[in-house]
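Hi F.,

I've been meaning to write this up properly since the lab meeting, where we talked about keeping a consistent format for the predictions we share between groups. The idea is simple: the sequence comes first, exactly as it goes in, then the structure tokens exactly as they come out, then a line or two of notes. No screenshots and no reformatting. I'm using this chain as the first example so we have something concrete to point to.
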Amino acid sequence: MARMRMIVNPAAGAYKTARKWPEIMDLLRSLGLEFEHDVTEAPGHGIELAKAAVEEGCDLVISVGGDGTINEVVNGIYKAGALGTAALGIINTGTGADYIRTLGIPRRYKEACHSLANPKVKVVVDLGVAEYVWNGQPEKRLFVNFAGLGFDAEIVRATTEKFKAMGDMPSYLMGLLSTLFSYQNRDVSLVVDGEPGARKVCTVMLNNGKYAGGGMIPAPHADPGDGFFDVMVIDDIAKPDLIWSLPRLYRGTHLTHPKVTLMRAREVEVKPSVQMAVEADGELLGEAPARFSIMPAALTIVI
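Output, unedited:
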């Protein structure tokens, strides 16, 4: 039996996780699971808790929260040097649930608990590595699902800094609307697997999974274990066209738009002419210039 520790983010799902956790605990115990648990107290705390869990001998670390919680747990496992030995489990209590849609993990936490009690599959997936700048210093962060620059990241910035108190979906919609009015497309140097190019872009997204933004499908054919990013670039699109085309992102039919390019790549560098935000798995990281690389077959997930 694996030694199991839950990393619980009570703030996930607009703080609904705090209310759900006692029921989840009772359900897991009724299913015969023995586990330890830690509760996060602030953004980034999940990284330290997951790192400590692995260093204390846990070989299965369970994320209880949303995509941001998964990101922190994976970064904690990485910081402990245990990507090859410790596995990840996921109980979703977040709102977006983008990553688990690609993996086929149940969205309802009761079903996810039953799956953990009787795991059927171990899936080995790729991870992304983002290198960027924060407060003038170089930083590095792993991501599981996707990273984004430009319009996508500015939505996250607005959501986090201006509207977070409204709850997950209302804050995202307000962040989207405010960014639509204020954002200007950026001139960038974009280097894809060593091939340089200059273009004016609205957004650049590097996808391991198919879904992002609470149900958008930026990379309909992405495979989280194929050793490549699916890189979606929206070029210099006009605001009315962008607004008109947003529903296509939720249907996954945007790839036929003349301003949309999809490439497969292992490494991407972005150097903007002006300030450009960087986000990963729905969390604001910092600024470009940024470099993204794939870490193939890096993480085992129990399903």
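Notes:
The chain has eight helices and 14 strands.
Residues 16-30 form the longest helix (15 residues).

If this format works for you, I'll send the rest the same way.

G.
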